[in-house]
UniProtKB/TrEMBL annotation:
It holds the Pfam family 2-thiour_desulf. It comes from Clostridium pasteurianum BC1. InterPro entries: 2-thiour_desulf. This is Uncharacterized protein.
Length: 144
């Protein structure tokens, strides 16, 4: 059983109200082999919502902010915790998450400048899942 980003299944839960459907991931759910989650919705954020990126403050603390500098860190952290609960309660050991996302990204995320630049890193949910022994992939890994 996999845990998968709901937007990859075709559920309109991205920040812009759209989805990022991936046929392979959607098929896993149809076959009963995956459970879709949206950490941002689980954290209480609406859809659509302002785009967010991970930003490091002057003290080295990570925050998740909108371009207008609204702090959404608590919602992202709550969503990560709720996602972990779902994974643990279902004995899930692998996740396929949306690349570049401040929640789900793994490998590369946006750099916090809202300029489209990518840096090495992980989203809050991906990081928490990995710390708890869950192997995380992105939809890009499926193409390899």
């Amino acid at each position: 059983m996999y845990l998968v980003s709901a937007c990859l299944v075709g559920i309109n839960c991205r920040y812009d109200g759209k989805n990022s459907e991936n046929k392979i991931v959607a098929e896993l759910v149809k076959q009963g082999k995956a459970i879709p989650v949206c950490p941002e919705q689980l954290g209480g954020l609406p859809t659509p919502r302002a785009s967010c990126e991970i930003v490091m403050d002057e003290k080295g603390n990570i925050k998740i902010l909108t371009k207008e500098e609204k702090d959404c860190t608590n919602e992202f952290a709550k969503g990560a915790e709720e996602t972990l609960k779902i994974a643990k309660s279902n004995g899930i050991k692998k996740a396929i998450l949306k690349s570049k996302s401040p929640s789900c990204g793994c490998g590369f995320i946006y750099d916090g400048t809202f300029s489209g630049n990518l840096i090495e890193g992980k989203g809050l949910t991906a990081e928490l899942l990995i710390k708890n022994g869950i192997e995380v992939f992105t939809e890009n890994d499926l193409e390899k």
